[in-house]
């Protein structure tokens, strides 16, 4: 099979001719680039001419999938159109040699590029329609639906209608679902992602990103970029990430779901402005849609209402179980209980957790606890939700400490099980079987959620749960407790010899920072072996992120050096030593700095053949 030939207009280096008004009227193309362009087009024509022979007519094609069979005639038509277009381009290029003046040649190239642009747009639109008719989206990081689910919310149908609608003025609007925590915004978004019609509308993928507070926007952007485009991409800041996402989403139909957004500025990092792709946003901030409309005036906001009394009662008894209590046998005013829960689905679910395991005779105490409003909680969350969480944690008894230990995880939306088990094994001597049993108890009670991506499993907390745990836990001690079992896995070389388990290299610097071990963190960030091992295990973006956790003169110098070298280290990780030496060796500011000199000596040992040469800025 021949490799695919692609023509990337951005790779064509041109100079522009402007008229007296500053408008572009022509381009200058180097002769060798023109020859290369002509060769690529000729190759494309040859490949397309071979397709009918390999594919056969619709009658000759195997009908293994009915959708493929129905789409095949249209696909062949598209290929034929592409073939005719390229033939036209080739004819125009052949006329190039007959042009008498340089200006005529420049204008001809300009016309060809414009012609190819127009044709690419047409082909993109047609291919997008073919995908919608024949393909269904792959889901990325979309959480599973809860077992107790209210599937009749009218907002679901309203938002779905706008997801299925065609773009207005070639741009699909961002959709924002707003409601207090615990109302079920994420559940509705997950239902929409799993809806068959929605998946056919966005066949190029549905991507779920949990943002929350202090989110690493660039890391989220890179995750989507890599899923959309397998080739490596030179993106090193959020602005570049936004531009690249727009470019990738332009010919695709993808849905990006931003869950738990707290800042409208975070949404702008994913402002794809696409005719086929769209943003769906959930937020507990009641003004987020209004703020976002200031930046993206097409934004549509939706407010998710809590349950009605009838819905809340039905949901409560569904969660409790009819074998335990029914509306006829309940010993308290159940309507008063769901009212004390502010009709929030998650608060009702948490209240049902406690009711389910207690004798009916004690349910009045449960109601009294919910009606007691004297305890203070963080203001950004509904009081009833925080009350329900506290009552559930109290009901855990001695095992509540296990749950509180989860506060140590900075990224509470992606907690790896093996690190949780390691921490509990170290702190509480729990066997893995005991940890698994306790995890099942937490997930059954909606105190923790379990996600799976392929063969990878991870846990996640709601933002209100993580904030509550952080309020209750002794965080500095917890970070030190997590570091201790990891230190046992390192040999005499220290942290640089830690395990590449998908968490250690990614989060060690963060835990050292929060544990107050700043001197240790500085030594790490100035250790060549750590830089090299972390770069191998992760990427240049993750390595640079470590340097955000310490404000120090020497550390900032290394950070700036790595940033300047990022475009090289992104694709050539083995060049780390050479890049550090090239950029710092002759720097007068580091000649007398022992820490930087030690780093450079380590780099010199790693690259013994390096010799200093004058370095010129790009």
What features would you describe in this structure?
InterPro entries: AAA+_ATPase, APAF1_C, Apaf_helical, NB-ARC, P-loop_NTPase, WH-like_DNA-bd_sf, WHD_APAF1. Residues 171-306 form the AAA+ ATPase domain. GO terms for molecular function: ADP binding; peptidase activity. It holds the Pfam family NB-ARC. The chain has helices spanning 31-55, 66-96, 102-134, 154-164, 185-193, 196-201, 217-228, 238-249, 264-268, 288-295, 309-320, 334-340, 345-356, 363-371, 383-395, 400-404, 417-428, 432-444, 463-472, 475-488, 504-514, 518-525, 528-537, 540-546, 553-564, 566-569, 576-584, 594-606; strands at residues 14-18, 24-29, 139-140, 175-178, 206-212, 255-261, 278-283, 300-303, 449-453, 456-460. The model is unreliable at 52-67 (pLDDT under 50). A hairpin with a 2-residue loop joins strand 9 (449-453) and strand 10 (456-460). The chain is 54% helix and 8% strand. The longest helix has 33 residues, at 102-134. A six-stranded parallel sheet has the order 3-5-6-7-4-8, sandwiched between helices. The protein has a two-stranded antiparallel ribbon with strand order 1-2. The chain has a two-stranded antiparallel sheet with strand order 9-10. It is an alpha/beta fold and 618 residues long.
Short summary of the structure?
The protein has 618 residues and is of the alpha/beta class.
Main pleated sheet: 6 strands, parallel
What is the CATH T-level topology of the largest domain? Rossmann fold
Side-by-side strand order of the widest sheet:
3-5-6-7-4-8
The N- to C-terminal Cα distance equals 40 Å
Strand content: 5-15%
What is the CATH top level name of the largest domain? Answer: Alpha Beta
Percent range for helical residues?
A: 40-55%
Task: Count structural domains.
Answer: 4
Protein name: Apoptotic protease activating factor 1
GO molecular function: ADP binding; peptidase activity
Keywords: Apoptosis, Hydrolase, Protease, Repeat, WD repeat
Domain AAA+ ATPase: 171-306
């Amino acid at each position: 099979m021949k490799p695919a030939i692609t023509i990337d207009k951005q790779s064509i280096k041109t100079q522009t001719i402007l008229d007296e008004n500053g408008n572009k009227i022509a381009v200058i193309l180097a002769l060798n680039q023109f020859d290369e362009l002509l060769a690529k087009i000729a190759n494309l024509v040859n490949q397309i001419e071979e397709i009918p022979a390999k594919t056969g007519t619709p009658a000759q094609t195997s009908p293994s999938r009915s959708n493929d069979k129905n789409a095949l005639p249209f696909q062949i038509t598209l290929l034929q159109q592409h073939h005719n277009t390229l033939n036209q381009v080739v004819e125009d290029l052949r006329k190039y040699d007959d042009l008498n003046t340089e200006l005529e040649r420049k204008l001809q190239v300009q016309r060809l590029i414009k012609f190819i642009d127009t044709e690419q747009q047409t082909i993109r639109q047609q291919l997008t329609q073919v995908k919608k008719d024949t393909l269904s989206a792959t889901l990325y990081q979309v959480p599973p639906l809860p077992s107790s689910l209210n599937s009749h919310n009218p907002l679901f149908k309203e938002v779905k209608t706008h997801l299925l609608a065609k773009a207005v003025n070639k741009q699909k609007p961002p959709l924002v679902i707003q409601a207090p925590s615990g109302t079920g915004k994420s559940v509705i978004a997950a239902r929409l992602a799993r809806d068959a019609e929605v998946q056919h509308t966005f066949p190029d993928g549905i991507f779920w990103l949990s943002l929350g507070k202090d989110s690493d926007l660039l890391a989220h952007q890179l995750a989507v970029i890599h899923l959309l485009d397998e080739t490596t991409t030179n993106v090193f800041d959020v602005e570049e990430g936004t531009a690249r996402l727009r470019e990738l989403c332009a010919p695709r139909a993808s849905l990006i779901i931003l869950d738990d957004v707290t800042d409208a500025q975070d949404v702008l990092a994913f402002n794809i402005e696409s005719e086929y792709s769209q943003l769906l946003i959930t937020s507990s901030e009641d003004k987020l849609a209004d703020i976002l409309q200031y930046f993206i005036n097409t934004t549509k906001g939706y407010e998710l209402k809590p349950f009605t009394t009838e819905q809340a009662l039905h949901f409560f008894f569904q969660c409790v179980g009819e074998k335990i209590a029914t509306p006829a046998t309940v010993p308290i005013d159940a309507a008063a209980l769901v009212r004390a829960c502010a009709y929030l689905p998650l608060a009702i679910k948490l209240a049902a957790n406690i009711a389910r395991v207690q004798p009916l005779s004690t349910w009045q105490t449960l109601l009294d606890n919910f009606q007691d409003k004297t305890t203070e909680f963080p203001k950004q969350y509904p009081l009833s939700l925080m009350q329900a969480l506290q009552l559930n944690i109290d009901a855990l008894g001695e095992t509540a400490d296990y749950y509180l230990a989860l506060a140590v995880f900075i990224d509470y939306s992606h907690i790896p099980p093996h690190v949780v088990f390691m921490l509990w094994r170290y702190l509480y001597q729990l066997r893995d079987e005991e940890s698994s049993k306790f995890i099942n108890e937490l997930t059954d009670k909606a105190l923790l959620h379990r996600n799976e991506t392929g063969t990878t499993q991870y846990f996640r907390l709601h933002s209100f749960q993580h904030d509550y745990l952080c309020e209750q836990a002794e965080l500095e001690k917890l970070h030190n407790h997590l570091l201790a079992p990891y230190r046992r896995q390192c040999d005499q070389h220290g942290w640089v010899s830690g395990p590449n388990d998908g968490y250690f290299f990614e989060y060690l610097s963060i835990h050292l920072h929060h544990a107050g071990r700043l001197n240790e963190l500085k030594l790490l960030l100035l250790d060549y072996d750590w830089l090299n091992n972390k770069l191998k295990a992760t990427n240049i973006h993750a390595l640079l992120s470590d340097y955000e956790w310490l404000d120090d003169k020497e550390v900032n110098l290394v950070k700036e050096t790595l940033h300047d070298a990022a475009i090289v280290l992104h694709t050539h990780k083995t060049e780390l030593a050479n890049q550090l030496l090239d950029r710092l060796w002759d720097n007068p500011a580091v000649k007398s700095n022992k820490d930087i000199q030690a780093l450079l000596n380590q780099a010199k040992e790693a690259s013994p053949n390096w010799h200093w040469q004058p370095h010129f800025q790009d």
